[in-house]
Amino acid sequence: MANKRLLLGDEALALGAIHAGLSGVYAYPGTPSTEITEFIQNNKLAREKGIRSKWCTNEKTAMEAALGMSYAGKRALVCMKHVGMNVAADAFVNSAITGVNGGLIVLVADDPSMHSSQNEQDTRFYAKFAMVPLFEPSNQQEVYDMMNQAYALSEAIKLPVVMRIVTRLAHSRAAVEEHEQMEQNALNPYLGRDWVLLPGIARKRYVELIAKQSEILKQSQESPFNKLELTEDKKLGIIACGIGYNYVKEYAPKNAAVLKISQYPLPESQIRTLAAHCEELLIIEDGQPFVEEQIRGMVGAGYPIHGRLDGSLPRTGELTPDNVAAALGIKIELSFIAAQNVAPRPPALCPGCGHRDVYDALNAVAAEYPNYRIFGDIGCYTLGALPPFKALASCVDMGASITMAKGAADAGVFPSIAIIGDSTFTHSGMTGLLDAINENANITVVISDNLTTAMTGGQDSAGTNKFEQICIGLGVAPEHVRVVVPLPKNMDEIIKVIREEINYKGVSVIIPRRECVQTLGRKLRRIQAEKK
Amino acid sequence: MKKDIILSGVGGQGILSIATIIGEAATEAGINLKQAEVHGMSQRGGDVQSNLRLSTEPIFSDLLSQGGADLIISMEPMEALRYLSFLDKDGWIITSSNPFVNIPNYPDPNELLAELAALPHVQLAHIDDIAKDNNLPRGANMVLLGMAAPYVEIVSIEQLRSAITTVFARKGEKVVNDNLTAFDLGVSAVK
Fold first, then answer.
1. ipTM score assigned to the predicted complex
2. Are A332 and B68 in contact (CB < 8 Å)?
3. Each residue's pLDDT tens digit, A401-418
4. Is B93 in CB contact (< 8 Å) with chain A?
């Protein structure tokens, strides 16, 4: 009997990549994609095969390194959450122009409903924009099965392939049946000179990319992952993308006509066949109305199309069994109404967390200045926006605290303070700090260093033990790089340091440094277990 | 046969360990399963839940619909009530009655427990107290699993016990035995 394992969608994807002959994974942690790289880091077979798997500084460095491994002829995987694609986009879009040598899969985990994110952008737009194929698996088995086929397609068509999953697949577990393993590619660096994207070369390469479009459309139309199920029901045709197919299978009548889409570009021929067979279409897709908008241009004006744009499904938020059932006209009877004695329980900084002491100190000093602003960033410490701290003026994207504080200081805000975590600082804060230094902007930057990437579960942080050198090397005056230990007993000292640095006219950096209580707790439990 | 379960609690209370054990028992018994988990920001002391679907038939959806849960198993009483609209009319709530108060506007615990007790199918017990009184400080979640065991049905109490042994085996005999003791205490707490 074939080997079956209970795996998260993320883990199934990772195992599929390992079994497809992966040579390296490159990633920056981001929910819901983190467990892919972690699985590879902890997998015995991956270690035996020498699969490269350490964390990268950000998604752009990850994307570029993966492209480099592909250039050398080997199969590479780069993983990120959806907003990470914005960081990697320069490299990603241009990797479609260079093309690939070894197979390259760009895994992007979207987060519809924003369970752990600041927007719900849909990665399918990026794949269309870069004109590369995209796979959107519907379940754990399919994502495992797809990896080898996606690598084979990438190598056949010489393009990167995007794998798009969503939170509910990434973080849901089911049994997965394993297949045979592929050998890794041998070292075989690309010999041509046409990866040098000088305008003259890039123009030619762009024409070649356009010429590949008919082939990737053909691949999509013939894909085993796109499946047209025509029935005698000629009223409603359902187009179900990715995990939307599961909800349709669960709730739609058994005789419904369904087109399952798990490979893009859109399989136009099947869509036209379904539209001709039925009188109207319902589009079930997780994320933005990507398919719904394109289909309007395929089926002729006046053809009735239902989905997120006409209100059949909500315009925002993830698909759920309930909203899909409602779109199918199925009424779910409720036996119990919502309970009375329930209050929201938002996440909070852990008891004993060093960020708590940092916010206590910042709020104490800030109270002395009526016009202060503290610009926040992405990480656990974003929770400083909530009670009891209510400290933050903004949280936008990785690294934005420093540059927004600078812009606000340029405009006259004083004191203008940035708070950023250690991992976020090396991800995207260092370049902004250089801007501030070069103009001697009057800002105070707090790098709240807990020695880990805590929000996503405690991964290694790229700058650990290097922050003072980085800041001084970029040009912060050494006497204005101040390190404190964020503990209640040090509160007077921390407050004094913050006050002094706010009053210094120029760029100063305060580094409150204390290990994350979660990673420390795990370490202590491990030591205790070893003693026993 | 199918059993659709919502596991709920507060980040850090150990609901995923309960899911792991039911999952191990189901896999061992050849029962299909899908389990949607919550990772990321919510794990920091916020409300967490997991949808666990077990069936002898193929399962498509990773998530449950409202009105579709056969069981709500909760480490915390308010978190059990949060998912009430997901409960089937014949469904059961198995929950701890020890409130976990980490928000300023937590409801009056007496009113909360009264609302729970007024529902038709509820098993309530002070699982934290049971665990502490028996010197099993980390065993509250296994007490709860024991209480839920007779209602899981699609896998037997014995299959759950044997899954506990398998899952905790690598942590040593004492951990296995402590968890089995906690589980048995839960089974006998069922009223």
1. 0.94
2. yes
3. 999 999 999 999 999 999
4. no
CA distances from A50 to A62, A79, A224 (A): 18, 18, 32
Angle between helices A467-474 and A430-438 (to 10 degrees): 40
Task: Tell whether B129 is within 8 A of chain A (Cβ).
Answer: no
Looking at the fold, whether A477 and A365 belong to one and the same domain comes out as yes
pLDDT, position A2: 59
Determine the average pLDDT of the residues in A350-355.
95
Nearest to A168 among B63, B102, B107 (CB): B63
Cα of first residue to Cα of last residue in chain A, in angstroms, is: 39
Q: Are residues A217 and A281 in the same domain?
A: no
Tokens of A171: 């973080």
Helix (H) / strand (E) element for A166: namely strand A161-166
**Peptide bond before A478: cis, by omega within 30 degrees of 0?**
no
Say if residue A360 is in the same domain as residue A508. Answer: yes
In this prediction, residue A1 carries a pLDDT of: 42
Q: Residue A307 falls within a domain, yes or no?
A: yes
Top CATH class of B2-97+107-189 equals: alpha beta
Structural domain total, chain A? 3
The least confident of A178-182, A185-189, A264-268, A331-335 is A331-335
| A315 and A300 both lie in a single domain | yes
Which residues of chain B carry a pLDDT beneath 50? Answer: none
Task: Answer whether residue A532 shows pLDDT above 70.
Answer: no
B84 touches chain A (CB under 8 A): yes
What is the chain A residue with the closest CA to B88? A335
Q: Are residues A250 and A285 located together in one domain of the fold?
A: yes
The confidence score (pLDDT) of residue A528 equals 85
**pTM (2 decimals)?**
0.96
Q: How far apart are the CA of A456 and the nearest CA of chain B, in angstroms?
A: 6
d(CA B191, CA B117): 13
Domain of A410, CATH number, reads 3.40.50.970
Nearest by CB to residue B37, choosing from A171, A336, A346, is: A171
Q: Is residue A199 part of a domain?
A: yes
- Domain holding A298, by residue range, is 227-327
CA–CA distance, A100 with B146 (Å, rounded to integer): 54
- A30: closest CA of chain B, how far (Å): 9
Q: Which of B39, B60, B67 sits opposite A250 (nearest CB)?
A: B60
Residue A490 lies in a domain: yes
In this structure, chain A runs to a length of 532
Q: What percent of chain A has pLDDT over 90?
A: 95
Alpha-carbon gap: B69 to the closest alpha carbon of chain A (Å): 11
